[in-house]
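Researcher: Re-running this chain for the archive, since the previous output was lost when a drive failed. Same request as before.
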Amino acid sequence: MRNHFATSAREADAWAFQPFEARDHVASRFYRPVLFYHWTGNIKWAQAARDVLDFFNSVYEGQYPLSDYELESWFRAWDMIEEAPVFTPEELALTAGRMVETAYAMRKYGASSGTRIGNRHTSVGSIGLWATADWMRRSFPDNADVQKAATEWQQGLREYFTTAATDFRDDRDSTESVDSIMVFYRWCLETGHAEYFTSGHARQALQYCLTYHDSLGYTCGIDGYAEAVPGNLTMRYGLGQPLGALAFVEDRREVRWLREHFPPGRSNSGWYWPLYWGIGCYTPRPDAPVTDGPPPHLVGLSAMPVGGRTYGMVETGTASLAPGVSATMPPREQAIDKLCFREGFSPEHQYLLLQGFQGCQIGTVDANTIPRCTERGKIWLFQHSDQIGHYYRNGLLVSNGLNTEPLQTGCRLDAAAQLVDGFCMSSTTLADYHGTDWQRAIFWEPGEWFLVMDRATAREPGYYSALSTWRTPVYGTWTDGRLLTTTQDDVSFHIHSSHPVDATAQAEAQDGAARPFVLRERKSGKLTAGDVIDFHNLLSTTDAGTPPRWEPVKLTDSAVVVRDAQGNATLLGIGGPGTTQPEGIEADGGMYALSPVDVCVAGVRRLAIDGHVLFDYAEPLTAWIDLQDGQIAPGHTGRALCDASLSWRLPDMLLAEMGKADVAVCKAVKEPIRAIIESASISTGDGVQPTDAAAGTLRVAWESDQLGRKGRPVGGLKVSAEGVASEMLYQAVDGLIPTSNGGLAWDAGVPAEFEVLWPQTEAVAELRLHMGVAAPTSRPNLAEPLTAERDVQLVWSSDGFRQDRREQTVTADREVYLHNPNKGYIFPHKYLLVPVGDVQASGVRISIPRLEGEAKLFLTEVEVLGPERGPLETHQLLVRDIDGDGSPEIIVSSGHGLLSVLDNTGTLLWQKRFKGRTTRVVAGDLTGDGRQEIVLGTLENLVHAFTADGEELWTTSFIGLREASNSKYCTNGEVAHTVGIWEPTPGTRRIIVGHYWYASLLDETGTVLKSMAFGGRHRRVFERTADVDGDGLQDAFMSYDMPWQGRTAIATLLKGDEVAQARVSVPNGIAYVGELLKGEGIRAALGTQEGFGVYDLENNARVWEYVGGRPLSAGIIHDADDDGAPEFYVGGRDGFVSAFSIETGEPLGSHLIGEAVNDVTAVGLGADSIFLVATGTGLRAYDARWQPLGSLPGVHVDIEPAGDRVAAVTGDGRLQMVTMP
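Model: Regenerated structure tokens:
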């Protein structure tokens, strides 16, 4: 180990001995040189550590500013260097006193007696406090108070860690658990708690860590926190510490193989340096024996059971559960944490993970979903979402229009098998899932395909919708109503339905770590109890441009044939009550795979084919049967797979163990199986879609096409989405490439290279290449850096691309050429090339080195920290009488930087164009003249104000806000995400601007009165105001969310000059509905993507709330029943519009639209109400009882009442004024 550090120290000399002021003032700058000094004895390292400590002692008074992540490192480092001959007695005394102050202040991070096992913050903080107490006890032996405190702390910590050793991980199902597991390993070994290892829990913990990483070595994306940070799609945890510990303690050869061959095993955790204790750096001796491959039980199908302590916490109600999740669990023996299908540990090998457990201590709701699928060195399916619910996962979203009942905490393992021929299958059920039981069966032919069969069986009659979601990292094409194909490099991935199905396939908004391209298959209709909605999808890969080799064909909702062109075929099915078997098949429970050669079964008691009983047992059979000679070989069951996580060994499968089946029967069933397989044919699709028999077509009074078109770049340049040439040149406008902040962004549909052209003699001091839709400082998400040729260097770093800062002259004959080595493997589909400073680019040439078939290049404008608009993805629509003439004007702010104002006849009054995308637009009287001004924000960090006649009142810039506020949290806080106008007192007008982590107050002239650091992304300012605290001032309200935290809040603006922190915790995301309610008290109705409810702002409490059940997309507050109290109407991506009582939250009913709702509004009151619903196929009108009145075809994205008519914006950028029937 000393040699290891000596080598590292030599390499780090340049870093360590530069002046301290040139480096960041963070705690890690202290303990890193300490480690090098400790292991090398080089006094210069001790001096470097002293310089850092001297800085902290001179700048901070009292405790050191440490986080729980840094606590252990700081104290262990001081313990290592305290006696180095570089400190004066005064420095030693000062530092010791500060260390004690820090210890008492940081006590809050450590666990105490009775503390449940929590998460990374509990575990890492506890190991830090353990090290702190240990140092205090040794450093102050004669101080009774210090000794008492340290002893009490360690007593609670010992109980905490001893409890941890009774299970294999903490409560969190996330990367946080990986941190905690490393802490458990270290503490147990340091303190002699060998039971963690002898019980097998240490092995289970390590298997959890390994299962959590795909075959490329990246984490699987379940975590809605760290893994949902933009850029973390290829996040990797260092597993060297637990692998090293287990290899050392148990002398396991197969673990040493993982240390050498699996990328995460070759490094330690990235959160901190766990190297104070030698086992963190354990390296086997060169002659230590190593197996020829990984642990056998980890290859094939492996299973992780739900930990006993975790199960008990949920069962007894002591676990903290996510919104929308109940304490109901499957039986203990069937409670599954994860199922992992792994061909091996090479990047080329297949990997698919099924999530079985949800909602315990973390906000994810994802049971029965597939977080990750990799094959042939590529990520094909991913999750990485910070949103709650199955809509944002690779799974099935079932809705009954209400979804108000909480879900079970986990899915039930019904059957699982790993058989002697390598074939694997599993069946899991999420019971009582929004009125259905959702069964997901997975069949796996290693090296070939996965078949995923989803069946949602209605438990009671009613209307249902179901969405089968598949999230891929790159663009794909949907053909024949059955096949999605997406390509990376020289590999194509196919998602192939067994029958034609209604579906959409499109890139969706940024979600967590990346912007996904999503296939959503949908079915909906009226079901009786026992009816089934089914989806069957085959996952496979081929060489790029090659059609899938295998094809799935539906026989019934419970049976599918998978076949190739050479005649190879297998019949796959699910047995048991409620299933529909092909004619001639009788299967009592479980799963089966039938071919004319052999039969595979998992959990089947009786199997008969064409009247021939192959077997009939009292207990379920899991086995492989050879139809040639009747040989039966038992397979590994789900229970055996779970048990193997403790023993790290599967029982041997002996061919002779069960003898033989009746050979005559085996021969008799071969031909019937062949006949059933050959009878399979492609159906015409199924799934009842509701049809609203509209009375007629809605009439368009007038239409305007002067709003600009979706996808048009700034400057009016045209972008062709199809028929592209192999080379295209895009000229710059005003020296800027046509995107929102001077760069080029394109989607990775095909491999692409590009050149950037400048005028002759233009000096380029810096060139930045960014990737992603987050701020430029966010971590790009590529497995390898992009490279630059012709002397322009881009250096890969942990926090982005560093720039080549050498000044150079770019001339017409010396163009900068940058090459993308990943050729289309792009996360999250966005590149941004930005010349820095005053450089004026003249154009961009796009080259496509390979065009095959209908390959397309998708060009879009870049969104840097843009708002997630949902149904407002293209436009924002307002209808206001801004000029005071009694007739409303229509205001449309397009997403691509165009503000248009039209009168009530469709005449364009005026129009303004901006370089960057616009965000929120509002209207209000700023000048007190009775006319309203228009205020809007942009992604260019500007807020503009215009008069009703289109004259610019003022423009306020927020560039530099982050630096001025000196916030370490904000990456691009200047962007104006939302704006609002209100009057705290009559005649006093204020404008609120919500940024990313900031809020600013402006007066009516645009002067910034105050900018405040503020934890959250601001989303929406409520139009109505109220006096919350009785001081006579009207207070304005603004919703915001906490990124990656799973909750949001309502912020209150007090006295017109201050912003108070969160008042009420509410569902996360964009506020589609945000209104103060009339009546007694001050209540707010709020609806976001993840939930909705009513909140008491005077008492900071929820009145009622529903979270996590439906992906909301629209909502209104409207009284349609003439009772004087409005109802809360919410529309969702699940295809329903539902009504709830404002007072109690009681569900009042729902209506199945049958497709995603983009927006909903209403005109009229009471029984005369007319509801309008905008969808991807049309605008629909309904009466107060939700009977259809009429429709208007076309994609409609935003609608707003305009008197007795409705203004509507279409997906292609037209504005329509629609007359009611």
